[in-house]
Amino acid sequence: MTTPSPRPDNAGPDRDDPKDQQLEPARVDLTDTRLTTQQGVRVDHTDDSVTVGERGPTLLEDFHAREKITHFDHERIPERVVHARGAGAYGHFQPYDDWLAEYTAARFLTDPARRTPVFVRFSTVAGSRGSADTVRDVRGFATKFYTDEGNYDLVGNNMPVFFIQDGIKFPDFVHAVKPEPHNEIPQAQSAHDTLWDFVAMQPETMHMMMWLMSDRALPRSYRMMQGFGVHTFRLVNARGQGTFVKFHWKPLLGVHSLVWDETQKIAGKDPDYNRRDLWEAIESGQYPEYELGVQLVPESDEFAFDFDLLDATKIIPEEQVPVRPVGRMTLTRNPDNFFAETEQVAFHTANVVPGIDFTNDPLLQARNFSYLDTQLIRLGGPNFAQIPVNRPVAPVTNNQRDGYHQHAIHQGRTSYVKNSLGGGCPAATGEFPEVFSHYQEKVEGHKIRRRSESFKDHYSQATLFWNSMADVERDHIVAAFRFELGKVGERAVRQAVVEHLNQVDHELATRVAAGIGVPAPDQPARPNHGRSSPALSQLNTAMDSVLSRKVAVLVADGVDGTAARKVVDALRGHGAVPEVLAPTDGQVRSATGEDLMADRAINTMASVLYDGVVVAGGAESVQALAADGYAVHFVAEAVKHAKPVAALDAGVDLLTTAGVRGVDLAAGDGVLTCDQGVVTARTNGVVPPDFVTELVSALARHRAWERDTAAIPA
After folding, report:
1. Is 371 annotated as contributing to ligand binding?
2. Would you list the domain boundaries of the chain?
3. What global pTM score does this model have?
4. What EC identifiers does the entry list (predicted)?
5. What's the CATH code, domain 550-700?
6. Any idea which residues carry the catalytic annotation?
7. How far apart are CA 148 and CA 395, in angstroms?
8. Is 378 annotated as belonging to a binding site?
């Protein structure tokens, strides 16, 4: 995986591209315009209704007031049942080369000269539109490719597996994880009785619950989050030959997460944290980049694994089938209107193009029905594909007429096939791969309602996930289970889940039981198979970039302004985003009498909103910060969350005040230290080059997990 550049050469919105032009809706610029009704009639006044006299009744004939109020009353559409809270962006996808043409006729994946426009929507799953971004949850990662052959939707998540194996259980699962029906509590949380009762009754959930209790459920950013197609799909080449495929998105910034304490505080400080992060990165030109990769399995190897390829609760370990890179997606433009684009975009797993087809995965088959059904109720009828964000760049020529919100004006006498009066058009002609043709396979069997025996191993891959985690990741998983089950009132449900965990790993079950007040199992329910997959650990992700990492630089009156500016400039030069925080907004007086502009007041922000903290030098400045409890807590909290923390000269004393432990803060003058992500230098106003180098290195590693934070107050 290559390191991304802040501005890729081919990045940026290209409104001159014919494809991009076709995606453009009729934009409304209200600059220098006059107020009109929906019918284009100009009006002179919109502050008062028409009444009988100044204090009399309002007249029904006031068509302007009625139209205005009626439109307002109908502004809201039903929110998505799941994935209600989202954020979106436009961009493009481009293959690296043509190697995949051996496996698929989908030209947008095989022609490196093609740059396919995309729209991506990221989302949480369980919460309503008004919930916070940083809740513990699965994240949606849905990509609409506007290809020349039609729209293709890769509707995925940031986890490669799902809670259930068959779509018939989806309503049950969603009902269980949603707020409980008697009191509509809790919002956007899985820590309640009904969800865990469902888990206890459905052991197929255990692999997904391991992912949900891991750091994967707390992404630092949508730009630092993997995406997966979840299901096994099928690629079909030009000769009609099929190959099983799993789709992967890998962020070039690496896969990084928040910690649980941070997420809860961010939900109060900035509930739009992930949404804002995506928006600001694109606006600043630090375009998010993701590499699309595939795992390919020949049809002859369909039964070569110890799990079923059609089981959506299973992964193919990358050590068994490597992920091969296909191309890169770059997000370059924010939507102009959230409702018109991000809210109205409609994804559908059955939106496929020639060269991509389905398998008999029972969860995928149900999704192929459900998504279309959902869009019909949300978007008011069958013509939602005509909404600009959903409109294909490929020509649309069919006899589907009329209906709510029909925007096309169809001409001619015929609206049926076959016909002679319309010249036989539109004509259903052509052969694969110029047209879509369903993959042919022989299917036979009795009509039954029964799960395949090959779907019944619910624990082995949950164990694989546990075995693959680093110690700190295991600690977080245990803490998550303890928190979630600690919110469950029914002790029998707690005990039942622990019994399932004992099927996964005895140590895991014992540690969880110790924290939730139920007896630990006496012995393992089954032996741990000992296998692991290093690719599953986030500690093995890319840690070589600080692009867009946010760093708080704390200052006050009397600061060493020259050194502070050098640190800020150096961090910017590496692609980070430093912000100068002071006790009050506006100008800060430096030790030499010069002014330094603060970007924000410290008490309007919080350490949880930054990736690292720098305390600038200057004795007077540090004394003022040390007397400010909010500033001291700011530093202590960053240290507690294992974030990189740096200090210059007198700034080192603030680290001591904040309770930093276990690192050498007593080094003498002229000494630079870097230990456990804490970088300090007492160099009398000089900023050593190694100071910034060490800080950048610590930021790229994301966290200093080796730091002992147990004794640090926050």
Report:
1. yes
2. 550-700
3. 0.93
4. 1.11.1.6
5. 3.40.50.880
6. 83, 157
7. 9
8. yes
